[in-house]
Amino acid sequence: MNISALTTLLASANGASQRSSMSMIILIVAMFGVMYFVMIRPQKKKQQQEQEMRDSIQVGDEITTIGGIMGRVVTVKEDSLVIETGADRNKMKITRWAVSTNNTAVEKAEAEKAAAKEAAEAEKNKKIEEAAEAGKAKRKKTKKNKDDTFED
Q: What b/e string do you get for 33-59 counting C-beta neighbours within 10 Å, with b at 16 or more?
């Protein structure tokens, strides 16, 4: 084998390895993009919603802590809450990050969903009734037209 053939062979292998390494880099970047949209972005969105929920807590809301303690908010401060629990109204001071759910807000959201569902169902029933009335009126009109043609 001569030197020029060896040089040509090495040059073509070097070009193929450059294309291979470039495709590997593109593949790795694509994998990180998929990981971001599948794992990181939804987690950040969930954390943002939880923070908004914790910031919107007001006096009188029913909450559940991450430890499972349920109570009504008595005092709201910058980074802590005072809740009262149980029938004997024990008061506890907790930090805002320890709030797991705002039961009052959840109940309001469920009530709004139920009301919207009922309104949609009522509207659907109303349209069905209107269509039935229109069908009856149309049948009466065609029956009257048939009777008129027989009389002539």
A: eeeeeeeeeeeeeeeeeeeebbeebee
Instruction: Note the CATH number of domain 56-151.
Output: 2.30.30.60
47-63: pLDDT as tens digits: 999 999 999 999 999 99
Tokens of 24: 């590997």
Neighbours of 81 (CB within 10 A): 23
Burial class (CB in 10 A: 0-12, 13-18, 19+), 76: middle
As a whole number of angstroms, the distance between CA 94 and CA 106 comes to 20
Compute, in degrees rounded to 10, the torsion defined by CA atoms 39, 40, 41, 44.
120
pTM, entire model: 0.55
